[in-house]
Write a structure and sequence with these properties.
Length: 521
């Protein structure tokens, strides 16, 4: 849904565009109009779905910028979240010059007191420090019209209930209250509702991976080998529309230029590019003018493209939820997809963690050799030649052709053509990707970094009675090989005739790839 349709002012729409948001996320689309209308709202949606902007935008719309009182209060469970939230609200409210301040424990209180004297209209704070300011009378909340309890599940888990009640006592009765949370155990809803008036409950279902549509593979490789291995896979799999995910912006740049140097039609997006450039690249990708998009997780948020055939996790995501977000870009709308995850030997624990969440075992693939990659490329080139011959008006070129044939051996001419249609192998164009710090070694049990998306069971409603995965490998006919390549006739990396594939949604059943991974049912 477009932000334009949500009833926000021009200033805010501009800020949204500057922030790089193309479309409102589902929780935003549903809750923003309600909050604008003055409703109390309980908003429940998975981590990373943009809940902050879901309340920030209508708050910014509703506050009176000429009024010097605190009009909106956002309570956050942790200092980090409070800071992040303040930054986001500040960013979105910059055009309207909204004054947004943050208070949290463990920081110099005198500085905060000074900033509170600057007449902020919006305050973000952690419960303890908010109470501190209230007691010192450095924060007056009697003009607050909007209250947000953000990350409510986390807040109550941390035992902030009493503090929150004390804070709420300071607020006018006539106010609007919003509660946002990733999970909503009955206890939280019960408590939350006490502070609210006839709240509307908006619940966005977590996206599940339709795993039976996605073949999920992993490849063990050392960090410095990944690039060459990946391009060889590109050659044997000839993916049509591919997203390569990587952990850092630097890698986005290096990988996209490396791919271009080897003749792939690739580009990268990350937060440092201008909005204009990002939109440009996204549009090229959307319209098939770009085969490979290299992106960071953050840059890829909000990207909604349906025909992605392959997702490559150049770097394994640290967080299993990110894996679901990433891989969920393919296997959409009933089409088959492939995901490939590179794992360095010491990252295997992360892989297992992901498998636990998705309840699917990824199948290992061995990197193809350069020769195998070339064989595949030649197969694709042969198809391409056939295409070219079919669509060429022979007469037009007859004279020049005759001249060339007099000069060269026919075989040499064809070889040159094939050479032109295949990509340079890694030995010809060396590409070096700067090493990044590896993920911290995970010691079996996952440490809890203040996240709240675990244990909520958001992804686990597959009716699985628990325990164990099942993995099914259907060995079918066709020219399946261990690199997960498609049937020969659909090999074409060069783009252009993607329609041929897209029209053929069920191509795998024709015996292209050999593996099927199914969720335990
Ligand atoms: P949540 O609170 O649901 O966990 P956040 O509000 O922290 O999620 O948002 C996660 C990320 O998504 C942030 O980086 C934010 O800037 C970004 N984001 C929010 N809304 C959008 C949108 N409509 N399109 C793209 N990115 C968005
Ligand atoms: Mg949040």
């Amino acid at each position: 849904m477009k932000f334009k349709e949500l009833g926000l002012s021009e200033d805010l729409l501009k800020a949204v565009t500057t922030a790089g948001y193309e479309e409102a996320t589902p929780i935003q689309a549903e809750t923003i109009p309600m909050v604008l209308a003055g409703q109390d709202v309980i908003g429940q949606a998975q981590t990373g779905t943009g809940k902050t902007a879901a309340f920030a935008l209508p708050i910014l719309e509703k506050i009176d910028k000429s009024n010097p009182n605190v009009q909106a209060l956002v309570v956050s469970p942790t200092r980090e979240l409070a800071i992040q939230t303040q930054e986001e609200i500040y960013k979105l409210g910059r055009n309207e010059r909204a004054n947004v301040q943050v208070v949290y424990g463990g920081a110099d209180i005198r500085r905060q007191i000074k900033s509170l004297k600057n007449h902020p209209q919006v305050i973000v704070g952690t419960p303890g420090r908010l109470l501190d300011h209230i007691r010192r009378r450095t924060l007056k909340l009697d003009h607050v019209q909007m209250l947000v309890l953000d990350e409510a599940d986390e807040m109550l888990n941390m035992g902030f209930l009493d503090d929150i009640e004390d804070i709420i006592k300071q607020l006018p009765e006539a106010r609007q209250t919003m509660l946002f949370s990733a999970t909503m155990p009955p206890e939280i809803k019960r408590v939350g509702v006490q502070f609210m008036k006839d709240p509307k409950h908006v619940k966005i279902k977590a996206k599940e991976l339709t795993t039976d549509l996605i073949d999920q593979f992993y490849v063990r490789a050392r960090d410095f080998e990944k690039f060459d291995v990946m391009t060889r896979f590109f050659d044997v799999q000839s993916p049509d529309l591919t997203i390569v995910f990587t952990r850092t912006k630097r890698r986005v740049d290096e990988i996209s230029s490396g791919l271009q140097a080897r003749g792939y039609n690739a580009a990268g997006i990350h937060g440092d590019l201008t909005q204009k450039r990002r939109t440009q690249i996204m549009n090229q990708f959307r319209h098939g003018k770009l085969d490979i998009l290299v992106a960071t997780d953050v840059a890829a948020r909000g990207i909604d493209i349906n025909d992605v055939t392959h997702v490559y996790n150049y770097d394994i995501p640290q967080d299993p939820d990110s894996y679901v977000h990433r891989v969920g870009r393919t296997g959409r709308a009933g089409k088959h997809g492939v995901s490939m995850t590179f794992v360095t030997p010491n990252e295997m624990d992360y892989l297992r963690e992901i498998e636990k969440l998705t309840k699917v075992r990824m199948l290992p693939l061995k990197p193809p050799s350069d020769e195998e990659a070339l064989v595949s490329q030649l197969g694709a080139a042969k198809d391409k030649v056939t295409d070219l011959v079919n669509k060429t008006d022979t007469e037009k070129f007859a004279k020049t052709a005759e001249g060339l044939l007099n000069e060269f051996d026919a075989e040499d001419l064809v070889a040159a053509l094939l050479n032109d249609l295949t990509k340079d192998d890694s030995s010809q164009v060396p590409v070096k990707i700067t090493p990044e710090r590896p993920l911290p070694k995970r010691g079996g049990k996952r440490h809890d970094g203040g996240g709240y998306h675990r244990g909520g069971g958001n992804h686990r409603r597959n009716g699985n009675g628990g325990g164990g995965y099942r993995q099914r490998q259907d060995r079918r006919g066709g020219d399946h090989d261990r690199h997960g390549s498609r049937s020969h006739d659909s090999r074409n990396h060069g783009g252009g005739d993607r329609n041929r594939h897209s029209n053929n949604g069920g191509r795998r059943s024709e015996g292209g790839r050999g593996f099927t991974i199914r969720k335990k049912d």
